[in-house]
Design goal:
heterodimer; A: 14 helices; about 65% helix; B: about 20% strand; elongated
Chain lengths: ~350, ~110
């Protein structure tokens, strides 16, 4: 999409993720062109704000930063977007762990680019959250203090190089399945940020898949390493979709507000159905003895992840929770002098140019 | 991503790094358009960060950064008063006029 330097993936299936993102982008433009059917933009709006807000949501129009919105809508979005931003930032750690040990210069350059993307995604999302009236510093402080969550998946360790592949294929794959519907979220800045994020994520998923494919077709030891990574990342990846629908606390209202478009279980099923064929191509086994096609449902039956484990990890008792938080706090503290120096330099330059102006006058 | 344009709260964070809005010209011949925002201590760093954050994949040939605090925006709440004058002037659109049959190049 960004021009001529990249090979056009002609062989891509029509229902590829990038097509879905492009469809969401087209829908966004179409909705903007359509406007609100009953009240033209620019017309008098003396209806009560709640009715106007509901009307916008029902007409699939985006809510923009300075529109009136219910407090709970604002709070829900801040919580969700912040959590999402924190996940991108913490998500740099498991893979960052392998940058210095990537097996070739090419793999190292790719991994660096990927981790840099994640920092960028964090930034887009913090910026989207800021449009709701919080500051990035407040959100960063909440993360550092452990008072806001990030995705539980990043509390698992990356034990081998194959884990970098498994993260790209499974973790980024699950993230994309979760995030593509968010490109149609009712809050404009979040939807626009997600379109950008999803386009970049599809590179992440493919690079992971390629790593696993290479290992799965390498020596027996490499193959074993790839299988071991898939064995360890499969269930935590399924858990990324959150608790089953019956236990999901925020789902219903979020669906009504069109922040969320599909339930946790629907998305989890979609992910499983996608992965089965991809695993076959890799020649790797999905570690679920009960995984089988259900002709009646036209979907795969599969073993649910251990939700008790998910809850334990979310509440702070995963394999790496403390390590991740400590690392982030250390990085923030270690960077303080850079922020201070940049600020001092900016102030000094501003003072100098003010002096020059005075002399010239 | 952020188009709070002109919204005063949040334009400067507690530690004093102002918020900048970023505009990118994707290709020669196209106008700059808003792509997002970022915090930076000064214009030069804002520009460098904008390059790293918003043009990692050759999305642009030119970048503007503008301090969010200096943008003055109309408010959606005022759209009635502010944009109303255009509503009853349909004669500003070419489709308002009936072209007699046979008139070419109009």
């Amino acid at each position: 999409m960004y021009g001529h330097h990249f090979p056009e993936p002609d062989a891509r299936p029509a229902d590829g993720l990038l097509d879905q993102v492009e469809a969401a982008e087209a829908a966004l433009r179409a909705a903007a062109a359509r406007g609100r059917p009953d009240v033209a933009d620019g017309a008098a709006t003396d209806t009560d704000p709640q009715a106007y807000f509901t009307g916008l949501i029902e007409a699939d129009q985006k809510i923009e930063p300075r529109d009136w919105m219910p407090d709970a809508y604002r709070r829900t979005l801040i919580r969700q977007i912040a959590q999402h931003a924190h996940s991108e930032i913490i998500g740099m750690q498991p893979e960052g762990n392998w940058i210095s040990r990537a097996p070739s210069l090419k793999r190292k350059a790719i991994l660096l680019a990927k981790v840099q993307d994640e920092a960028g995604h964090g930034l887009y999302l913090y910026a989207a959250a800021e449009t709701l009236g919080v500051t990035r510093d407040e959100l960063v402080d909440l993360l550092l203090a452990g008072r806001q969550k990030y995705s539980s998946i990043f509390n698992y360790p990356t034990l081998s190089w194959a884990d970098v592949g498994a993260i790209g294929w499974l973790v980024d794959g699950a993230a994309i399945v979760n995030q593509v519907p968010l490109c149609r979220c009712s809050y404009g800045p979040y939807a626009r940020a997600m379109i950008r994020v999803c386009k970049e994520e599809s590179f992440h998923q493919r690079q992971g898949y390629e790593i696993l494919h290479t290992l799965a077709h390498g020596t027996p030891a490499q193959r074993e390493m790839a299988q071991d990574a898939v064995d360890r990342w499969w269930y935590p990846s399924l858990a990324m979709f959150g608790p089953p629908d019956g236990d999901s606390t925020h789902s219903q209202q979020s669906m009504a507000w069109k922040i969320k478009r599909f339930s946790n279980d629907e998305l989890r099923q979609r992910f499983v159905d996608m992965c089965v064929q991809q695993a076959e191509v890799l020649g790797l086994r999905i570690p679920d003895p009960d995984l089988r096609w259900n002709a009646e449902r036209q979907a795969y039956d599969f073993t649910q992840p251990d939700y008790a484990e998910l809850m334990r990890v979310i509440s702070g008792d995963g394999p790496c929770n403390r390590q991740r938080a400590a690392h982030r706090r250390r990085a923030h503290t270690d960077g303080a002098w850079v922020r201070e120096a940049a600020e001092t330099y900016a102030a000094k330059q501003a003072a100098r140019s003010a002096e020059r102006l005075e002399v010239a006058a | 991503m952020s188009d709070r344009g002109g919204m005063t709260d949040g334009s400067t964070d507690r530690r004093g790094w102002p918020l900048w809005e970023v505009f990118v010209r994707p290709r020669r011949g196209l106008a700059h358009s808003h792509v997002g925002s970022l915090h930076a201590p000064d214009a030069e760093l804002a520009l460098r960060n904008a390059r790293d954050v918003y043009t990692r994949r050759q999305e642009g040939v030119s970048i503007w950064v503008v301090p969010a605090a200096v943008i003055t925006a109309s408010s959606p709440d005022e759209k009635d008063a502010f944009f109303a004058p255009a509503a009853d002037k349909v004669y500003r659109h070419p489709t308002f006029y009936q072209v007699p049959d046979g008139a070419a190049h109009l």
